[in-house]
Amino acid sequence: MLIKKIKYAIYVFMYCVKNVYFLFISSKKIIGINQSLFLITKFFCNYILTILVLNFKYKYLKNKFKSDIIKNNKFSNDWFSNNIPVWKHVFLAKSRKIKNILEIGSFEGMSAIFFLSHFQESRIDCVETFEGSDEHSVLNFLQVKNNFNFNIKSYEQRCNLYKMTSDNFFNQYKNKDTFYDLIYIDGSHFGEQVYRDAVNSFEMLNINGIIIFDDFLRKYYKKDNENVIGGVCNFIKKYDKKIKIIFVGYQIFIKKNNY
Questions:
Q1: 3-state DSSP: the chain helix, strand, coil percent, rounded to 5?
Q2: Distance CA 86, CA 3 (A)
Q3: Burial of 135 (0-12, 13-18, 19+ CB in 10 A)
Q4: Which residues are bridge partners to 161 per DSSP?
Q5: Cα(100)–Cα(79) distance, rounded to whole angstroms?
Q6: Which of 91, 138, 225, 248 is the most exposed place for a label (fewest CB within 10 A)?
Q7: In this structure, are residues 21 and 13 in contact, taking their beta carbons and an 8 Å threshold?
């Protein structure tokens, strides 16, 4: 038992050091040292909160979602359920009213189902090409699409699927009277595309609405600014006083201020 605790403590420490280093190196070139240090401080505090409190406090909710939703639907991968404790903390615990949701990159619909099952009055627009990107070369996206359609069937009256790129979606719909309380960006992870998705999303986000960026601390491309963190930091730099960073972890949560 003691050895397991020591191994876990070492893992926690190394994970924190690795991400703090990546966060500092990647962000300071774009947003400056002061704001970079702010992100690092926020990450450190939120990371400690997550591992010491949230993962235990919401363990039951996460396990219930896995037993009730994941086991009873068709999913080839679970890349989502580890986010549940933080999402519960940010949204549900604060009783935020979420009615209109936009999701860029829905894959098999796991996160969409979480939204719809926990926000009973919500509706969601899912933007998904079902073609993948250079990260998904080994996946069968015909099966992914079939799984999405199967999984979302129980919620189809509250879910609209837009089978197109996010650029095409925004070009067609951002001038219409549709505004969202929550936007989840998990499509292309290439920095320039993340930035475009963020800017376009901001224009369709209600005041006090929130954007979640997935894989904020993931390094896939060689150049740091080509990863999600590059797109997000450029977005932070552009909007600065118009936004508030409310949570920093593997995902980052940003709120639109009343300016």
A1: 55, 15, 30
A2: 28
A3: middle
A4: 126
A5: 23
A6: 138
A7: no
Torsion of CA 55, 97, 78, 200, to 10 degrees: -120
Nearest to 190, CA basis, from 129, 133, 240: 133
Measured CA to CA, the distance from residue 19 to residue 15 in angstroms comes to 6
pLDDT score, position 93: 56
What is the Cα–Cα distance from 238 to 259, expressed in whole angstroms? 14
- Token pair listed for 258: 């009343």
Answer whether 223's CB lies under 8 Å from 29's CB. no
Least confident span in 18-27, 79-88, 134-143, 167-176: 134-143
Contact 185, 212 (CB under 8 A): yes
Longest dimension (CA), the chain: 59
Please state the domain extents for the chain.
2-256
pLDDT at residue 136 above 90? Answer: no
Pairing of strands 243-248, 205-213: unpaired
Say what percent of the chain tops pLDDT 70: 97
CATH architecture of 2-256: 3-Layer(aba) Sandwich (3.40)
pLDDT per residue over 93-127, tens digit each?
555 689 999 999 999 999 999 999 989 899 999 99
pTM over cut 0.85? yes
User: Rounded to whole angstroms, what are the CA distances from 194 to 32, 166, 190, 237?
Assistant: 20, 10, 6, 14
